[in-house]
Amino acid sequence: MPELPEVETTKRGISPHIKNKTVISVTVRQAQLRWPVSPAISKLLPGQRILDVKRRAKYILINTSTGTLIIHLGMSGSLRILKTAEDPEKHDHIDIVFDDNSCLRYRDPRRFGAFLWTNEAIETHKLIKNLGPEPLTENFQINDFYTLAHSKKRPIKSVIMDSHIVVGVGNIYASEALFSSGIHPIRAANKISKIRLSHLVESIKGILTSSIEQGGTTLKDFVNSDGKPGYFQQTLNVYGRKEKPCHTCSTPIKQITIGQRSTFFCPNCQH
User: Fold this and answer.
1) Is 8 a catalytic residue?
2) CA separation, residue 29 to residues 93, 114, 162, 195 (Å)
3) CATH of 4-124, one of 3.20.20.70, 3.20.190.10, 3.40.640.10, 3.30.930.10
4) Which of 162, 169, 174, 245 has a Cα-to-Cα distance from 233 of 20 to 30 A?
């Protein structure tokens, strides 16, 4: 599943190609995604100028004067910019065509993404209103995080992947941030000192920033808006490296399951 850096990379990739352009048509070939595609998209989006493209958690928000298009890439979704609308392939489900004949195309083989429309203030939408702070903003800082973490007996990895506490720390980056801060992923959140949690906050910020700068993690189902894969996976320290030597101490990397998710860690460097 595309994680926050992949979604941010996609947002940055499409934004300059669609911002301030006017939509002339919307074609929905497959409306059955994770939730049915909002019929309002085909009716209300044509004729609207794109005012801004934002991201909240893993949602891409395309703003117009009459409402907001909410896009989630799901397990395998991707957005591409085409100079002109080309013949669609099997999994090309939605086209948004602009006044210069360029096209924003949504592809989703597994159909677990979403295209929704709202004319409400976006912060009140049911998918958005209960989300935690963005990890790369000042709203995610140690004092509030420490208070929340110390109210939880769950493993710290589960806590940092809880979108009500902080958004966008998916499975890959949770394992990487815990390794960077030397914290064992199964350690109870309420048993970790404030200074160690402070290191974790900084690790989350640093790893996500680095990943965004490098274009997102290479996943088999994810490519950037220009069709090129991301290149962050080559620098992963623990994720996907079961039984391979730790880059720091050469101890074999271990794999366990936490919350039904594969978790990777170094048993020597993390405690």
Assistant:
1) no
2) 5, 14, 34, 52
3) 3.20.190.10
4) 162
Average pLDDT over residues 218-244: 65
> Rounded CA gap, 30 and 168, in Å?
27
Closest CA to 237 of 223, 217, 221, 256: 217
pLDDT of residue 249: 98
> Has 111 been annotated as catalytic?
no
Structure tokens at 182: 């030397």
Write down the pTM of the prediction. 0.89
Q: In this predicted model, what pLDDT tens digit does every residue of 3-57 receive, in sequence order?
A: 888 899 889 889 999 999 999 999 999 999 999 999 999 999 999 999 999 999 9
Q: Which of 11, 55, 58, 107 is catalytic?
A: 58
| Annotated catalytic residue 105 | no
